[in-house]
Amino acid sequence: MLVKGGKPDILIFAAVIALLSIGLVMVFSASSVMGIADYGDPYRYLQRQTVLAAVGLAALFILMRIDYHIFKVLALPGLIVSFALLVLVLFVGQGTSGATRWIRLGGFNLQPSEIAKFTMINYAAVYISTKRDRVRRFFTGLLPLLVILGVKFGLIMLEPDFGTAAALAFAALVVIFAGGAHLGQLVLLGALAAPVVWQLVVKEEYRFRRLTAFWNPWADPTGAGWNIIQSLLAIGSGGLFGLGLGRSRQKFSYLPEHHTDFIFAILCEELGFVGGAMVVLLFFVLAWRGLKIALQAPDMYGSLLAIGITAMIAFQAMINMGVVTGSLPVTGIPLPFISHGGSSLLTSLAGIGVLLSISRQCKS
User: Fold this and answer.
1) In the structure, what pLDDT confidence band is assigned to residue 330 with cuts at 50, 70 and 90?
2) In what helix (H) or strand (E) does residue 108 lie, and over which residues does it extend?
3) Cis before residue 160, ω within 30 degrees of 0?
4) What does the domain layout of the chain look like in residue ranges?
5) DSSP string of 167-187, one letter each residue
6) pTM, whole model, 2 decimals?
7) Cα(126)–Cα(253) distance, rounded to whole angstroms?
């Protein structure tokens, strides 16, 4: 099912290519020292990221040419497969610091929670566009969808991965709200869920320490507050125009995860406020055009799918940059298209491919 005619949204395509290019440059700059220390090769992480970017771009171009309606048929099978993978990772998964988030497949680490995000968005879009007004009825419309979302959220929390679980919940709830769910019901459910979420935060000591460190990182500068303090030092030392590409000081074992979750801090250190503002602007363009595609989509399914993909990427970017700038508590969410990583990059590029497919069929 190929899309005939219609041009993809050029601004989204340009913004993604720009972000991806910035990401490759920053991955090399941030990881070269670590590559030498770990493998004796400064290009080790760049080479891997380049291969993943090439695969992701291939997926983007293929999905951009395929009629997005094919994912309607795949909604239920995709949901089942994602559930199976989320269960499987708890038994055979690999990870670090007590978390099991990846399944090793040859030389690639598959992160099931990334697949779970897209399949949840797609299933919610199909469910709501099929049932239409029934979604405003709680027991026969909204509740079954919330149960599926809750089970997925719970499985991801068992890994544990609070950041990805939050991104999943946010994107799905945006789709549900955009699909016509009763706002009062969602607000009530949010109020009921708040104590549960709070217990999930305070139950684990490391999460509670991150929360208290967010309030005052200097209370524990060598412990829970270390990441935030080092990140702020990197951003602050960058000034307006930065120290210069490749001249970061914080990447020399001061700032943890400097090539993944905290790569935006290294970017601001080397490229300054101007470089950081450019990245924010590119994500703004992506979100703006994504919402426009959702408004102009030819059908309700396409509209909900577009807004879900846009919300997923925009939320991750907002949370990542909020963490790096000390505006939000530390949580492990990569910066889309820029952070080093496989599953997140591939999922984001594939999602953009679907978004561009929808844009090719938009009403003029």
Assistant:
1) confident
2) strand 108-110
3) yes
4) 10-359
5) HHHHHHHHHHHHTT--HHHHH
6) 0.94
7) 46
